[in-house]
Amino acid sequence: MAIKEKTPPEEQKLEGGQAAAAPEHTGPETAQAAPPEVKKKRRVAPPPKVKKALDPLVTKAKQKPQTAVLGQFLYDVGFWAEYTVLRAGRRLRSFGALLRAKACAAGQFLKNTIGKSLVNAWRELIAPFARLRNGFKNIAALVREEKKTVGTAKAVGEGLAYFGRGVRRYAPLVRPSFAYVLPVLALGLFVYVVNTVLGYNYVLAVEVNGKVVGHVQSEQVFDAATAELTQRIDALGDESREFTITPTYSLDVSDTLMDEAEMANVLLQESSDEIQEATAIYVDGELLAVTTEGEELHEFIDSLKAPYEDPNNPNLRVEFTKDVELQDGNLYFTDSITDLQSIIDVLTGEEQGQVTYTVQQGDVPGSVASKFGMSVSQLQAQNPQQDILKEFFVGDVLTISQAMPYLEVKRVVTRTVQEEIPYDTVTTDSADLPFDTYKIEQEGETGLDEVVYEDTYYGDSNTPETVEISRTTLKEPVTRVRLRGTKLANGMVVSGTNGTWVWPVPNYKGISRWMSASHKGVDIRANYGASIIASDGGVVTTAGWHYSYGNYVIINHGGGRQTLYAHASSLAVHAGQAVSQGQVIAYVGSTGNSTGNHCHFEMFENGVRISAYKYFAGM
């Protein structure tokens, strides 16, 4: 059977240009184009031993008509596999040279060049595998054609035999293929290992006395478990019982983890056979007692709160004054079990507690002691930091020790109310208005707050302790703006008034006496001629002589406020004059009904004389 030379399956051109796809091989009789001319390479002869072993097989195969077709096909596959590997090597070397030559080229040009080269390299990299796949397709097609003439079994046998000889003949091409296959396999293995290792749940295996008792997330869990176990042992009240356990840890993989309570149960099982499942009651985090009557204990705890609960009031919360927690199902030493009645006696009993009391106006040691049902000596014993008989002042905080319920129920009621926010008033001087007259330039408006309070009632008490929880402003207040006239009839303008007071005699020596039922003001001692200043700005309404006051000055500060300064040696202002705060208005002397140099100072608010001690208590 005549065999025509077959066009290479993947390329029509070998040097430069894009390879044209070859038509699929359909059988030995299919016409094929001749392969293009290529530059011949020196072929490497097989080793003598291999050649000697293959020669008889080759001679026998040549006698069969199918051998030529299959041989030509395998030759093409081997030829193109070798050629592709060599060409890929040249391309890779060219690619490396290109990178070195273009290393300093412009960034965009370098980017485009690398991109195109990578595409070409990728194509060359997968080309042998693509050709190998096509080779197997061609072998399958060849076998299908042969079995039509010689039968299936013989066609397959001949195909496999010849394929084996072809593989042995082109064995040198297998080694280069590892350069492609092994890195891919290594990468796949690496990804698999990393993914598998990262997916493991690594935990600590706890080993006690040579036995793994469980797994925990961290050493802290085991430490908490031993602390829990220590509390269970302490519940016995037997200090002679010793408990020492030294664990070892190892890294392990497990999906089952224990918490503190579970680990404590396991440790307890490992340490003693005399254990029992029970219910524990914790008060403020401390183990109070353990009982096997857990259901009854739950019912008793609920019964303490039941009288105060109201399911129809969502704003009511009933709690204990202490944090109470019941834990069921844990293991405890049998001799630590307590009967239910003993626990009830403790919960409903009393304990010594401490409260604080702040001394109020009018309190004396005896009245405070009586209020708490104790003697003064007992009150003194509880407050050794001070001698309450000698040092007992308003604001002192005393510590009172007294019997208190061990466990008390409290009701916490949350309420939301709206409260008005008072507006501020800003007073601005106006020279357009007569002195001491006022005009509202902007009316004030109250704001509105939404306030959440918590009222806490203890026991049966109806007097709550109120705590503000939050405050939200719904409406901001609007400031009231008031104009205050400063214009006098004589054209002068009052300035320097700010509604505050300053001491009228800066360089004073002392105070002879304050205002009393028999004395109308405060007498401020000072040297003769010392300056007397206006306690606030205003207008002088009086500046002259009085038989009792001697030389004196009265200033109207506006807003119903007035001040009087008497017994001056001389005056520095006149009636109708505007003065500012701190301005010198007179000088200290002893005129009128006076003994010694001093300034007699009086203050008035809305026509009522007030004591200067209200504003100058520290002088």
UniProtKB/TrEMBL annotation:
Superkingdom of origin: Bacteria
GO molecular function annotations of the record: metalloendopeptidase activity
Basic and acidic residues composition-biased segments: 1-14
Transmembrane segments: 178-203
Record-linked InterPro entries: Cell_wall_metabolism_enzyme, Dup_hybrid_motif, G5_dom, LysM, LysM_dom_sf, M23ase_b-sheet_dom
Entries under Gene3D superfamilies matching the protein: Glucose Permease (Domain IIA) (2.70.70.10), LysM domain (3.10.350.10), Resuscitation-promoting factor rpfb (2.20.230.10)
Keyword Lyase carried by entry: no
Region (Disordered): 1-55
Residues covered by the LysM domain: 355-400
Span of domain G5: 406-488
Key words, A-Z: Membrane, Signal, Transmembrane, Transmembrane helix
Keyword Signal: yes
PROSITE patterns assigned to the protein according to its UniProt record, in alphabetical order: G5 (PS51109), LYSM (PS51782)
Protein name in the entry: Peptidoglycan DD-metalloendopeptidase family protein
Species name: Candidatus Allofournierella pullicola
